[in-house]
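[step 3/7] inverse_fold.run input=structure_tokens len=93
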């Protein structure tokens, strides 16, 4: 099983979830208002009124066949709007 972690601007969340659904994702977990620091600097958690600059983290567990379809769907979004995606092995407990 594979684990796909996506971190990107919260503004693109609807487009990303649509791409995942159309790619056949069996499900996903969404974590909003993710903060941290990356190449462009720190992402603030002080977004109470605007949500500008907020990030989302989406986690998907799926088999490799589904993952290949998901990558085709999400790569254009990440390439255009920015964000990162990582794939790792996942073993159920």
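[step 3/7] decode complete -> sequence:
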């Amino acid at each position: 099983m594979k684990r796909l972690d996506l971190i990107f601007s919260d503004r693109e969340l609807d487009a990303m979830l649509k791409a995942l659904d159309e790619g056949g994702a069996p499900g996903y977990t969404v974590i909003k208002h993710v903060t941290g620091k990356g190449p462009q600097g720190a992402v603030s958690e002080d977004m109470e009124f605007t949500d500008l600059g907020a990030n989302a983290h989406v986690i998907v567990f799926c088999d490799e066949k589904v993952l290949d379809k998901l990558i085709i769907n999400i790569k254009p979004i990440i390439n255009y709007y920015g964000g990162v995606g990582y794939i790792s092995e996942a073993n159920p407990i």
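[step 4/7] annotate
The radius of gyration is 13 Å.
Helices lie at 13-23, 64-81.
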